[in-house]
Amino acid sequence: MPAQIIVAIIGIETIYGRQMGNFRVKDVLATLAFSYPDTPNKSSREQLFKDQLKELILMCWNDAGGKLPSQNSNLGVNKVQLNACLNQNSSYAGAIGLPQFMPSSIRTYAVDGDGDGHIDLRQNPKDAIASVANFLKAQGWQAGMPIYFPVQEAGIAQAKALADGEPLLKYTVQDLISKGILKPSQGDLQQGGVAPQSKAFIIDLPYPDKDGNDQAQYFVGLNNFLAIVQYNRSYFYAQSVAEFAEALGYKNQNAVPVIEPAKSTSKKSSTKKKPKQSQN
Q1: Measured between alpha carbons, how far is 194 from 251 in angstroms, rounded to an integer?
Q2: pLDDT tens-digit profile of 36-51?
Q3: Are 23 and 271 a contacting pair, CB within 8 Å?
Q4: Which of the following is catalytic: 13, 55, 243, 246?
């Protein structure tokens, strides 16, 4: 996993640990689970946070030495450790630690990065780094491949027509080349691109211009862009991670080495025969 991507994510999430949130996680999740604001998606959001509250309790019970299923027994549970886990600080939405994982993500993707037998996403950068890498790997990150491509100026109208806001890989790179959205070299592995049949989608990033009119920037998102979107479901977030990583030295192109044609170094052998020596 590229170091620049992980550094960019942790930097954007918490400014490298300076802003991890100061809300008690059990209070946050309980409030959002049972008193979510009146919005059109209130029911689905409450269910999401109910699920996260459950994941938090299971995570903390397990970390404190409890067995699952609990069978109504607290035998072996370290109550101090259990309460510390339930009352640890989080963001206003219940995200925890350097990588800002929700409880379900901690239970699924967090790993022991330094082999000390304990996972600590708040104080141990090695655990946080390894956990972010494990998350992206599980989302299908393709090593050595680019994240996105810029849209060609002549292809902006075509890109706008294809932009539907859905983060789904639905077009081939060759399709987008044929429409003028990408240039041919972006479908050529030997020139830093990807395989022509690789799947992609259109990213639209709306913004107001200086006069307050709605405008948009367009990019072509590849598989690795979609992996970052799973971390935070926002095109703006994923593009920020990609550009931050590039500023840190990440090369937004494939790592396939260019194979130069082999040069022939052999010399033609002489076919001229030596004259026979006289037998006289």
Answers
A1: 14
A2: 999 999 999 999 999 9
A3: no
A4: 13
